[in-house]
Design goal:
Layout: H1 13-22, E1 32-34, E2 43-45, H2 47-55, H3 59-68, H4 72-75, E3 78-84, E4 88-93
Antiparallel strand pairs: 1-2, 2-4, 3-4
Helix pairs in contact: 1-3, 2-3
C-alpha cells in the first residue's frame, strides 16, 4: 500500500472538506483511521454514522454524499473508494502517486 505518512489521520482534510460541503452547519470532526485490512485498504472513515444522527438520514446515504463531495485532487490519488456495510468509507490509494 502507500506510505501512511502522506496522509496524517490526525488531520484528515479531504473528509473535513467533504463534511463541510455536505453539512455546512454540522459541528463534526472527521473520524478517519488506518484500515485493519491494510492489504485491501489504507484508511476508513466512519463519520457517516455520527452525521446520520444529525441529518436524520441513513448512514449509507450520508457516506455516498461524503464520497461525492471529496475533493477531486484527493480522488485522483485513490485507486478505490467504496462504502462497506452500513456506512464505512474505505479508501485505497494508488500505489504510484
Amino acid at each position: 500500500m502507500v506510505n501512511k505518512k502522506f496522509y496524517d489521520n490526525s488531520n484528515p482534510l479531504p473528509f473535513i472538506l467533504a463534511i463541510k460541503k455536505s453539512f455546512p452547519d454540522a459541528n463534526h470532526e472527521a473520524l478517519v483511521d488506518v484500515h485493519k485490512d491494510e492489504a485491501k485498504f489504507d484508511y476508513y472513515c466512519n463519520s457517516a454514522f455520527a452525521l446520520s444522527k444529525i441529518a436524520k438520514s441513513n448512514p449509507k446515504n450520508i457516506a455516498e454524499q461524503l464520497i461525492n463531495n471529496l475533493p477531486s485532487q484527493f480522488k485522483d490519488l485513490t485507486e478505490k473508494i467504496e462504502i462497506a456495510g452500513p456506512g464505512f468509507i474505505n479508501v485505497q490509494f494508488k500505489v504510484d502517486f
